[in-house]
Design goal:
Blueprint: E1 2-5, H1 14-18, H2 21-31, H3 51-56, E2 61-63, H4 69-77, H5 82-85, E3 88-92, H6 95-106, E4 110-115, H7 130-151, E5 152-162, H8 167-178, E6 182-189, E7 206-212, E8 237-240, H9 278-286, E9 290-291, E10 301-305, E11 319-320, H10 326-337, H11 348-356, E12 364-367, H12 374-386, E13 391-396, H13 400-414, E14 418-419, E15 422-423, E16 432-437, H14 441-446, H15 454-460, H16 465-479, E17 499-503, E18 510-514, H17 517-525, E19 528-535, E20 538-544, E21 550-555, H18 569-589, E22 601-604, E23 627-630, H19 631-640
Parallel strand pairs: 3-13, 3-16, 4-5, 4-12, 6-11, 12-13, 21-22, 22-23
Antiparallel strand pairs: 1-2, 1-16, 5-7, 6-7, 8-10, 9-10, 14-15, 17-18, 19-20, 20-21
Helix pairs in contact: 6-7, 7-8, 11-12, 12-13
Length: 645
């Protein structure tokens, strides 16, 4: 599902949103919108909500889980480059699974990994004999680091919070994996006051951050870039870009013609607008901070004075985040939720300082021990301050994913400041994030179905070695064929009705839940999704794979699986033939069959005519530039690394 601020939602969809009581109730619970009173300029809260209220509260965070598929399809269709427009991604999953799933898409794409793993202090769930405890913890970290490091760019940073208990062991592990890129071990004084609980008398009031990569942002400043050609009394300066980063529909207040008030030269407006709104730009003009080109074809820039730059960019001390303590993180959570929902979360100021060391304001940051979501809030706050476009991926398997992490991101998007669980200013930021739940190991076990014949059952009654051999080598492989969790490709004939049994929270109880095969296949392909559409009953995805090939994926319903038992083989075959004829017509109508088709690879579910018959009679015998492949075959190959399907 997606969470998106209303400023990015087409206005024609507002009446349906205003009428949705479930969405209204969540907004009241998260954002206290029921306390917004009507005044002379703005409408107040009402039940149901009004379109005017939505228009006046553009940073309300819509959650697509409250709406039907038709609404969701229409919303996604409104985004031209949906993956680029998505600012964040949340995985509700065990992190080893999530890292392996995202590897195909994000290998060599991540600028910064920051993690704050469990420190193995005895209360973090590692219940082993003492002599095995450290080894088990290191084994867990080793597997995840190997996958995580593969996501990093060549100049990316790996930052890991750690304490005295595991620091020396963990340093040996990270050095063995990426030791040639060790930058330094930073020290953070996490407590403002002394901790007197240690029986040795030594106050443990600090933690460490191990840093690996090429370098951090703290480099000597290049003074030769700062000059004073116009003898400005404020001293040497350098010029900075003022072009914006978002299209007009997302940031309309930054799209306007910029005119030199003295020469009246109109420089127009860039495609992505300006970095500042009119009020801020007028102040910069008044303060004589704009450099005006001589012709309208030039691009105005802003003066940045050497005297105004902060000192932290001249070097990076091994003592970091001074004046920021654990209690600050606790206060942030308390203000967001009005109660203690998590102990000892990292403060956002601490994570912001670490992320800033990448020196990249357009970077992708991942935290696969996301906890309460501090890293996500840090990225949002940084973007709010400098109007840049950092993005985040958060992975968390704990039960507080729904109770803390996701609502925390929704809250900090809606308002920059909170007190007692309620927004103070309601000053939000334009934002969209996607959230995904991955099938867990427990889910997989719940969905293994054993179809056992009488002969097979008799083998299990034997009391010899053959019984054990059958169980180990054949039982799961043979008897479990057709289980949903092991990819029952027969059910791809109705891809929007593929179900798994998912735990309800009560012990032993499950319920059938639809699996998003479309989203799963996108991830298996490593697809950079550009466009999602529903056309005449077909779901069509356009994107680019890791090889740079343009990919088209077409999903269709071939037959009604719920009526399969009542149908003969002949009727099923008739349904498939009819579906293929309709697919041929759809293919021609959308002009996917032309020689100059923009796609390199086309995937379709179900056996079809497209791979065998030229659909354009004028192109008979001419090899099209695209290849048509079966989704089922590629799906199974990518999931299980099957060489011959």
């Amino acid at each position: 599902n997606y969470c998106v601020t209303l400023d990015r939602v087409p206005v024609e969809m507002y009446p349906e949103i205003a009428a949705n009581d479930a969405q209204r109730e969540e907004w009241a619970q998260l954002f206290a919108i029921d306390e917004i009173k009507k005044d002379l300029t703005t409408p107040g809260y009402s039940e149901p909500l009004t379109v005017e209220f939505l228009e006046a509260n553009s940073f309300l965070v819509l959650d697509t889980k409250f709406f039907d598929q038709e609404f969701k399809d229409k919303l996604l269709l409104s985004f031209d480059d949906i993956e680029y427009k998505c600012d964040g991604l949340l995985f509700h999953s065990e992190n080893f699974q999530a890292l392996n799933l995202m590897l195909e898409r994000y290998q060599d794409h991540v600028k910064c990994i920051y993690i704050d793993p469990p420190y193995n202090t005895g209360g973090d769930g590692f219940i082993y004999k003492d002599r095995y405890q450290h080894a088990s913890w290191l084994s867990m970290m080793n597997d995840r680091l190997i996958s995580g490091i593969e996501l990093l760019l060549p100049d990316g940073l790996l930052l890991v919070s750690i304490d005295d208990i595991e620091q020396h062991r963990f340093r040996s592990l990270t050095d063995s994996l990426i030791g040639d890129k060790f930058i330094g071990q930073f020290v953070w004084k996490s407590r403002q006051n002394k901790d007197n609980r240690n029986v040795t008398g030594a106050s443990i009031d600090h933690e460490y951050v191990l840093c690996y990569g090429k370098n951090v942002r703290g480099e000597p400043r290049k003074l030769d870039l700062y000059k004073n050609p116009d003898n400005d009394p404020r001293g040497p300066w350098s010029s900075a870009n003022m072009v914006g980063i978002l299209p007009e529909e997302q940031r309309p207040n930054c799209h306007y013609d910029l005119v030199n008030p003295e020469t009246c030269i109109n420089y127009g407006k860039p495609k992505l607008g300006w970095r500042y709104d009119r009020t801020t730009m007028d102040r910069l003009i008044e303060e004589n901070r704009i450099i005006w080109p001589d012709s309208e074809s030039g691009r105005p820039r802003r003066k940045v004075f050497l005297s105004e730059l902060k000192g932290e960019f001249t070097g990076y001390s091994s003592l970091i985040a001074k004046g920021i303590y654990t209690k600050n993180g606790t206060a942030e959570i308390d203000n967001l939720f009005s109660k203690r929902v998590l102990d000892f979360p990292k403060p956002t100021g601490f994570v912001k300082e670490l992320v800033e060391q990448t020196g990249d304001t357009q970077c992708l940051v991942i935290d696969f021990f996301a906890g309460s979501g501090t890293t996500g809030q840090a990225i949002i706050d940084l973007n709010r301050n400098d109007e840049c476009n950092r993005r985040y991926i958060l992975v968390e398997m704990g039960e507080y994913f729904d109770a803390v992490l996701k609502p925390r991101i929704q809250k900090v998007v809606y308002s920059k400041d909170w007190k007692d669980g309620k927004p103070v200013s309601r000053e939000g930021i334009s934002h969209m994030f996607k959230y995904i739940r991955l099938e867990s190991y427990e889910d997989a076990l719940s969905n293994i179905r054993l179809d056992r014949t009488g002969d097979q059952a008799s083998l299990l009654d034997r009391a010899d070695d053959f019984r054990e051999s059958y169980m180990l080598k054949y039982m799961l492989d043979v008897e479990s064929r057709g289980s949903q969790t092991l990819l029952n490709i027969d059910n791809f004939d109705d891809p929007w009705n593929y179900k798994l049994l998912i735990g309800t929270g009560s012990v032993g109880e499950t319920k059938p839940v639809n699996v998003d095969l479309v989203e799963t296949f996108n991830w298996l392909l490593g697809l950079k999704v550009k466009h999602i559409d529903r056309i005449s009953g077909y779901q069509v995805i356009e994107g680019e794979n890791p090889k740079g090939e343009k990919v088209l994926v077409i999903w269709r319903k071939i037959r009604d699986l719920t009526a399969e038992d009542a149908e003969s083989a002949e009727k099923i075959q008739i349904q498939k033939l009819k579906s293929n004829e309709e697919l041929d017509e759809f293919f021609k109508k959308q002009q996917y069959n032309t020689l100059d088709s923009e796609f390199d690879v086309i995937y379709v579910n179900g056996d079809n005519n497209l791979m065998n018959v030229p659909l354009d009679p004028e192109r008979e015998g001419v090899e099209p530039r695209y290849k048509v492949r079966l989704i089922e075959e590629e799906f199974k190959r990518l999931m299980f690394d099957v060489k011959d399907v």
